[in-house]
């Protein structure tokens, strides 16, 4: 909405300046040269006369309603923004970093990553992709490990053990692991496992 108002002001001021040029005066407006592409789109506005000059002009010739409507038609511009289907700024890109003189009072809703504008959902998408890659890497490591595959194959049976018996089961598993992993004499311990 603000952009539309600013654009309308610039276009209207250009029409006034174009009217000055048509009347033989020189434009002092700084943006005039930048907006010369509008000359085909807008009509120059005639310079307004002071009230005393208009009164004397009205006395000299009999102005009719036709003259008034003709004056109004001459001062109107062709409004390219009247048709919402036409976007006059479609060909122009706006660089958000180009004008850093503005003071923004609130938090920015745009996210910049490495100097590039990223949509807000890209950060969550990136984190999801990273998480997926980690899970897949972990799954690849686990599928290569025979011991992990063995313990995973036991899980359906372990889940069937009643809760009050699981503590005994775990302690027996720990004893067996301790016996095989840390025992010095493996032949004597093989016969004691029941």
From TrEMBL:
Predominant location category: nucleus
Coiled-coil annotated spans: none
GO molecular function list: DNA binding
GO biological process, one term: regulation of transcription by RNA polymerase II
Ranges for region Disordered: 48-68, 98-125
Any one cellular-component term (Gene Ontology): nucleus
UniProt superkingdom: Eukaryota
Compartments (UniProt record): Nucleus
Residues covered by the BESS domain: 144-183
Alphabetic keyword roster: Nucleus
UniProt keyword Zinc present: no
Xref: PANTHER family: MADF DOMAIN TRANSCRIPTION FACTOR, SI:CH73-59F11.3
Protein name per UniProt: BESS domain-containing protein
Biological source species: Lygus hesperus
Taxonomic lineage of the native organism: Eukaryota, Metazoa, Ecdysozoa, Arthropoda, Hexapoda
């Amino acid at each position: 909405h603000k952009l539309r108002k600013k654009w309308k002001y610039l276009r209207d001021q250009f029409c006034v300046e174009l009217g000055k040029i048509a009347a033989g005066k020189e434009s002092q407006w700084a943006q005039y040269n930048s907006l010369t592409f509008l000359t085909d789109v807008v009509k120059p506005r005639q310079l307004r006369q002071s009230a005393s000059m208009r009164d004397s002009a009205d006395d000299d010739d009999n102005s009719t309603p036709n003259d008034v409507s003709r004056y109004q038609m001459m001062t109107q511009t062709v409004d390219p923004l009247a048709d919402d289907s036409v976007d006059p700024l479609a060909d122009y890109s706006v660089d958000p970093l180009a004008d850093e003189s503005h003071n923004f009072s609130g938090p920015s809703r745009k996210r910049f990553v490495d100097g590039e504008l990223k949509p807000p959902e890209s950060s969550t998408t990136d984190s999801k992709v990273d998480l997926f890659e980690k899970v897949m890497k972990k799954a690849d490591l686990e599928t290569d490990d025979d011991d992990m595959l063995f313990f995973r194959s036991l899980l359906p049976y372990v889940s069937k053990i009643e809760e009050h018996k699981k503590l005994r089961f775990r302690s027996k598993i720990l004893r067996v692991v301790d016996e095989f992993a840390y025992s010095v004499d493996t032949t004597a311990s093989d016969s004691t496992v029941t």
